[in-house]
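re the bet — no i am not wrong, look at it urself. input seq straight from the record:
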Amino acid sequence: MSKTVGYARVSTSEQNLDRQLQALEQYVEPDMIVTDKASGKNLSRPGYQSLKFGIGKLVAGDILYITSLDRLSRNKEDLKRELQYFKEKGIKVKILDMPTTMTDFPTEQAWIGDMITNIMIEVLSSIAQNERETTRKRQLEGLSAMLTDSATGKKISRRTGKPVGRPPITYPKKWESVYRDWQDKKITARQAMRLLNLKPNSFYKLAKQYRSE
């Protein structure tokens, strides 16, 4: 039995998926929408990869809905390759802001829909890649124009006078006792993280820093 699945993506954990979810829910059941909060510069995203591998992967006859091409990727070649993959697998990709993909042409006219869709994909994928490259260029130009703190080497915002980027991680109040229990194997790393309310990358970064000190 074929299934209908939606895919939504934003680039960072701070961004909101609501707009995409609302649009997709007009065509897909909410519990059939796969999401990612990860950059579109590569395809190694847990949600997206689950569409291609594992128990819930898409198979011939399935339909995948996305709101726009750049939700799959902002890289033109990756986009074309992924769309070709779905086509070869017999999976229909419906892109909400591309009307031709939302229409089923009669069999004898299917080539017309394919031709129009391919032209639109070429144009839109080029735009998506260009936007990503322009954004990256502006970010680099902005960083190069910032002042540098001679003591720390960090970039300083000219507008606020404060360092840019994420603030340094500080040791939680119970750090020493919890760290010691972890080292003595009285608790697991997972338990230590829960007690300190730290994510794995932050916990191990602080542990490495603590050992070096």
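see?? Residues 110-145 form the longest helix (36 residues). told u. also Helices lie at 18-24, 46-50, 76-88, 110-145, 175-183, 189-196, 200-212. so pay up
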